[in-house]
Amino acid sequence: DGGITQSPKYLFRKEGQNVTLSCEQNLNHDAMYWYRQDPGQGLRLIYYSQIVNDFQKGDIAEGYSVSREKKESFPLTVTSAQKNPTAFYLCASSITAGTGNEQYFGPGTRLTVT
Amino acid sequence: GQQLNQSPQSMFIQEGEDVSMNCTSSSIFNTWLWYKQDPGEGPVLLIALYKAGELTSNGRLTAQFGITRKDSFLNISASIPSDVGIYFCAGLNSGGSNYKLTFGKGTLLTVNP
Q1: Are strands A109-113 and A10-13 parallel, antiparallel or unpaired?
Q2: Is the pLDDT of residue B95 over 90?
Q3: What is the SS3 assignment for B19?
């Protein structure tokens, strides 16, 4: 089955620890995205990548880092510098970045930092 | 960043009723997308619109791309309990390297059986 997988579904960390969220897609999509969702809010873009070995900051990149070493994978690291890391994190992909290319989402990872 | 004004914020309806929700923006978009999100899950794409004035259906769902390119609406006919969820609109600009989707804050739909 083609799709986007995110693991784990739930993640718990202590304050001050870095944590890496996994995102894998087998849709052969060039572009991948990371969003953050807070209760009652729309989705906010953290980082996106149009192609392997390239990525750009979104609207709320501070305290996050990404890598894109393989087409299929776009892991997100939530660093200790992120002030409010507890949130629902969503990964998405599209054929390419830009007009006419719908973004498809994974099932999400709920991160709780205490 | 840009904002989409999505309304209503929430709706409580009886099974069988029709539903309408809309998004407006101060900016022009050249793609409108409508998603549904179930609790604890990722959004699922319902309908994609690419041309001003376009009217597209997907089963009981109908969406339109506003003629001014600054708005879109989604209608759900004959609602059923499984329509419950949060519906998001999203707009995409053209031009330059702006590949970011701008999302509305969502419409929470509750359907009473």
Answers
A1: parallel
A2: no
A3: strand
- 8 A C-beta contact, residue B41 and residue A107: yes
A43 → closest Cβ in B6, B44, B103 = B103
A101: pLDDT confidence band, cut at 50, 70 and 90? confident
Give the chain B residue whose CA is nearest to the CA of A33: B100
Contacts of A40 in chain B (CB under 8 A): 105-106
| Cβ atoms of A19 and A74 closer than 8 Å | no
Question: Residue holding tokens 């949060």?
Answer: B86
Contact A98/A38 with Cβ under 8 angstroms? no
> Nearest-CA distance from A71 to chain B in Å?
18
Q: What is the DSSP letter of A70?
A: B
Is beta strand A104-105 parallel, antiparallel or unpaired with respect to B4-7?
unpaired
**Chain B residues within 8 A of A38 when measuring between CB atoms:** none
B33–A102 CB contact, under 8 Å: yes
pLDDT score of B97 more than 70: no
Is the pLDDT confidence value at B1 over 80? no
pLDDT at residue B99 in the model: 67
CA distance B33 to chain A (A): 8
B44, B94, B106: residue with CB nearest A99? B94
